[in-house]
Design brief:
With 254 residues, the chain is an alpha+beta fold. It folds into two domains: 74 residues, Nucleic acid-binding proteins (OB fold (Dihydrolipoamide Acetyltransferase, E2P), Beta Barrel); 167 residues, Recombination protein O, C-terminal domain (de novo design (two linked rop proteins)). The chain has eight helices and eight strands. A five-stranded mixed β-barrel has the order 1-2-3-5-4. It has a three-stranded antiparallel β-sheet with strand order 7-6-8. It is elongated, with a radius of gyration of 20 Å.
C-alpha cells in the first residue's frame, strides 16, 4: 500500500461476517466513523484478524463509496494500548459512546486526537474517573452539546470554588443550591476542575462528576442501556486483569 492510501484509525467494534470475514466499525482520521468489511480476515494464517482489534492503532486502506467500505489493507501504526481489568472496561465504554453518538462519515479529527490521548491516559492512570469525565464532556462539546460549567445559568455569573450548585435540567445550566435543595449538590471546585480539564482528586468530586455527566449524556443516549457498563460491573465483581478478546469486542456492543 502506498502512504497516500492509508488512514490512521482505531477499531471501535467488530463482529464476524459469514465464515471468514469481519465487519468492523472504525474511527478514521479524515473520515470519521465508518463501517468496513475485511474479507477473508478470519481465514488462513493472515495477521489481519489479530490486528483488527479495539485499542490497536492502525493504518487502514479503504475502498468503495457505499455505506460499508471494503478494507484493502491493514498495518499496525503503533503498539496496542496496555489496557486490562478496570481500564479495559473503561476503554470499551469510550468506544460504546462513540458508536452510539458519532454520526457516520463526518470527520472528527480533533475528537480522534482526544480519544487517542484518553486511551493513552487510561493505559497510564490507576484512577480512570477523570479521564472518562473529561472525554464525555469533550465528546458532547464536539457534537455541539457542550455544557457551561464555569458559569451559572445566566452564562455571566462565575462559579465560585466555595459554592454549592445544582443542575437545572430544564434549562441545561447550573444554579446556586439552597440548603433545602433535594438534587445532587455539586461543589464549585468539582465544576471548575471539569471546566479546566483538571483531575478529580477526591471521592466526593468523582461521585459528583459522574452524576453530572450521566445527566448530560442521558438525552443523547436514549433508553437503551450501555453494554459496557455491565462489563464494568462484571469487572467489579470478578476483578480479573483480563485483556481484550475477540468475544469481548463482539459482545460489549451491538
Amino acid at each position: 500500500m502506498s502512504a497516500t492510501s492509508l488512514h490512521r484509525a482505531l477499531v471501535l467494534h467488530r463482529r464476524a461476517l459469514g465464515d471468514t470475514s469481519l465487519l468492523i466499525e472504525a474511527f478514521v482520521m479524515g473520515r470519521g466513523r465508518l463501517a468496513a468489511v475485511a474479507r477473508g480476515a478470519r481465514g488462513g494464517k493472515g495477521r489481519r484478524a489479530a490486528l483488527l482489534q479495539p485499542f490497536q492503532p492502525l493504518w487502514l486502506g479503504l475502498a468503495g463509496r457505499g455505506e460499508v467500505r471494503t478494507l484493502t489493507g491493514v498495518e499496525a501504526a503503533d503498539c496496542a494500548f496496555a489496557l486490562a481489568g478496570q481500564t479495559l472496561a473503561c476503554a470499551f465504554y469510550l468506544n460504546e459512546l462513540l458508536l452510539r453518538l458519532l454520526p457516520r462519515e463526518e470527520p472528527q479529527d480533533a475528537l480522534f486526537a482526544f480519544y487517542h490521548a484518553a486511551l493513552t491516559r487510561l493505559s497510564l492512570a490507576p484512577e480512570p474517573d477523570s479521564v472518562l469525565r473529561h472525554f464525555e464532556l469533550h465528546l458532547l462539546a464536539e457534537l455541539g452539546y457542550g455544557a457551561t460549567l464555569d458559569r451559572e445559568c445566566d452564562h455571566v455569573t462565575p462559579i465560585r470554588p466555595e459554592g454549592a450548585y445544582w443542575f437545572d435540567e430544564a434549562h441545561g445550566g447550573l444554579r446556586p443550591a439552597a440548603p433545602e435543595t433535594q438534587e445532587m449538590r455539586l461543589a464549585g471546585t468539582t465544576l471548575l476542575a471539569l471546566a479546566r480539564g483538571e483531575d478529580l482528586t477526591t471521592l466526593a468530586a468523582r461521585r459528583e462528576a459522574r452524576w453530572l455527566s450521566r445527566r448530560l449524556l442521558a438525552p443523547h443516549l436514549g433508553s437503551r442501556p450501555l453494554r459496557s457498563r455491565e462489563l464494568y460491573r462484571q469487572w467489579l465483581g470478578v476483578r480479573t486483569p483480563a485483556r481484550a478478546t475477540p468475544q469481548m469486542t463482539e459482545e460489549f456492543s451491538t
